[in-house]
């Protein structure tokens, strides 16, 4: 049976997956399937997870982080687009300046706006440091007239990091259960439900158990395919608007 690749699931995707699993189970006579205990445990956790997700989505600082991340992504994409266009300039000096800066930028990664929050902050900070201190890069920036663009990106990155740290402080001051903390518990409970269903399918005589096992596998396959497509899209497209919507607590392990 295919299993979900949990590490690739965003919070919203994991939540919806578990809701779909619960719906598949509840479409049957759970008591006769002897899965009531496992179903109830999962249902309780899904309800908690749903509440936490709604709370985190409604956080004012979280929305502010999303907006600030979008701001720096727009600035970054604007700079990159300018450099790519300038590579075709008829003036050899401008062309060489653009090529030099673009080469340096690409050394940090092909899709920086899609990195997780911390990684993107660090990369932009390091890149800005080089562009402000290395003589050849400083000259290239002057040649292309990119000072205003760089000031905007640097400011956006700094403001984002300040608000990100504020969110960390907020989380530390309110150490309630977070969505991230409950993920592993939900996954473990789901695995227990699947294990019991598979055991009944092997040892019992009710054909519904095997049907459920098949449905779990089909659902996991569908989600894995969808998420793989999203990941390919994330790694191949430079979008000026980030679609990051997850709590900062899970950004280190996920964009």
Task: Describe this protein's structure.
The structure is a single chain. The chain has 255 residues and is mostly helical. It folds into 2 domains: 6-58 and 176-253, no CATH class; 60-173. 74% of the residues lie in helices and 0% in strands. The longest helix is centred in the C-terminal third of the chain and has 30 residues, at 207-236. The two termini are 28 Å apart.
The percent range for strand residues is under 5%
- CA-atom Rg in angstroms: 24 Å
Number of domains: 2
Helix/strand/pairing category: mainly alpha
One letter per element, helices H and strands E, the order comes to HHHHHHHHH
Ends distance? 28 Å
Q: Which word captures the global form?
A: elongated
* Tally of alpha and pi helices: 9
Kindly state the number of beta strands: 0
Q: What does the main sheet amount to?
A: none
Q: What average pLDDT do the residues reach?
A: 87
Low-confidence stretches: 237-255
The helix content, as a percent range, equals over 70%
Quick description:
The chain has 255 residues and is mainly alpha-helical.
Topology summary:
Layout: H1 11-26, H2 36-57, H3 60-86, H4 92-106, H5 117-133, H6 135-144, H7 147-173, H8 179-203, H9 207-236
Helix pairs in contact: 1-2, 1-9, 2-8, 3-4, 3-7, 4-6, 5-6, 5-7, 8-9
